[in-house]
Design goal:
This protein has 252 residues and is an alpha/beta fold. It is built from 10 helices and 10 strands. Helix content is 41%, strand content 25%. A hairpin with a 2-residue loop joins strand 4 and strand 5. Bound molecules: adenosine-5'-diphosphate (ADP) and magnesium ion. Adenosine-5'-diphosphate binds next to strand 2 and helix 2.
Length: 252
Amino acid sequence: MTGLLGEMESTNASVAPKRLVATGIGKEFGHVRALAGVDMSVGQREILGLIGPNGSGKTTLLNAITGVVKPDAGSFELEDVSWRWLPPHRIARLGIARTFQSVRLFVGMTVFENVRVAATASLSARAARERALEVMAELGLERHGDQLVENLPYGLRRATELARALAERPAFVLLDEPAAGLDGREAQELGEMLQRIRSEHGCGVVVVDHDVGLIMRSCDSVLVLHEGAVIAHGAPSEVRRDPAVISAYLGS
Ligand code: ADP
Ligand code: MG
């Protein structure tokens, strides 16, 4: 009886959705206050949009979460782990993956190799190979597996970076301007992919982008940064009407 109960408890624990929570995150670069006490919270199977003018701290927030920069204040929490700063490989092991504003891939390596290397961090060689092929197929990359990444058109390089992030089987993915530089059809496909990352991969998503249409269409909630501070947080329809957001970012 106890054994059964124990099993049920552990099963429940493993399906309980996780939340990634940031509290009071602060970061200064010299005299520039990039983040001034930012709170953020996103659950699995939720898509949070992060918008704001250039220089408002969006990338710095993703960098702080993923260990690329060390915050001066605040803390992060995911399940029973709480931290101010951890190195990027530890963040990856917590199940947080990301893409960069300017695509980062291993040049001199093929699409397949790039994706497989990401999967290798958490899987055996054989499982990593299968996982790589699976996410490549999902992102329409299977025909490009043997191509060197530096020879790919921009949209496919973006897709390869996203495939790398998903190959890690993350619980959360943080995407820094994934639609930048994509054509209309690719941006449309990205919107559909965001929904699949939520529903099929079961991830929580934080997506930074200037494509307001994509953000408003795709996100459950939207957080607006201005000069390193949160000026609005709510459902897309509320945020879109918020006078502070209109004057700082959306315009009239
Ligand atoms: P966003 O992504 O919203 O455009 P960033 O987070 O990149 O904004 O930048 C926020 C502010 O922090 C800007 O003023 C930027 O110049 C500054 N900043 C970001 N990274 C660095 C850095 N590594 N060194 C110095 N200043 C930085
Ligand atoms: Mg940025």
